[in-house]
Structure formats: structure tokens, C-alpha cells
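Exercise 3.2. Students should predict the tertiary structure of the chain below and write it as C-alpha cells, then compare their answer with the key that follows.

Predict this chain's 3D structure.
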Amino acid sequence: MTAMEGLPVDLRAFHNDVEGHLLAAAAHEEAHRAAARFASGLDRLSAEQRGEVERRFAAEHLALTRASWQRTARRGRELREEYEALYRRLRARLIAMALLAVTLVVSAGLVVVISA
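Answer key:
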């Protein structure tokens, strides 16, 4: 059981929104820290140049992070569709087998009743 299962739909949406904002804020912070680490090794740059390098590095880092998240989300949707299709097929097989079993039991019962 997850913490989300007991929440009403509107609270779930709110929770997802808050989580998304927190993830985005963490990604921005990570990008800026990585940019500062990268630019700190460039001693020959002026402060203005270093600032521009940091801005470009952070923007590229965020773009890569966004692309990675989009690929992950797309793959998650693909897997969900695959598993849902598999579940539907398995459920149909189970229902067919249950109906066959009931039919066989009823037929066997009728044969016993008719022969007796």
C-alpha cells in the first residue's frame, strides 16, 4: 500500500503537482551547482564570461534532464500499455477457463443424473 492510495483524487493531483515542483526545483539547483563546479575550473575567464558559461551549462543540463525525464515517462506509458494488454488477455483466458470448468462440471453432473 502506498501513501497515495488513501487520498481522494483532487489531493492526489495536488500531491503530484507539489512533487513535480519539488523535482523541478531540485533539478534546477543541481544544474546550477554542476555549472558552478564546471566554471570554477576555468580560471582565465572573467566574471562575466564565467557567468555566461554557467548559464549555458545550466540550461544544457536542464535540457538533458528534461529529455531524460520525458524518455522515462514515455517508456513508463509504453510499459503500462503492454502490461494492461497482457492483463486483459490473462483475465480473458481465466474467465474462459472458469466457464469451461463450470460447463464440464455441469455436463458431468447431468450425465450422472441422466445415467442414474
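Discussion points: The first helix runs from residue 9 to 40. The CA atoms of residues 62 and 97 lie 52 Å apart.
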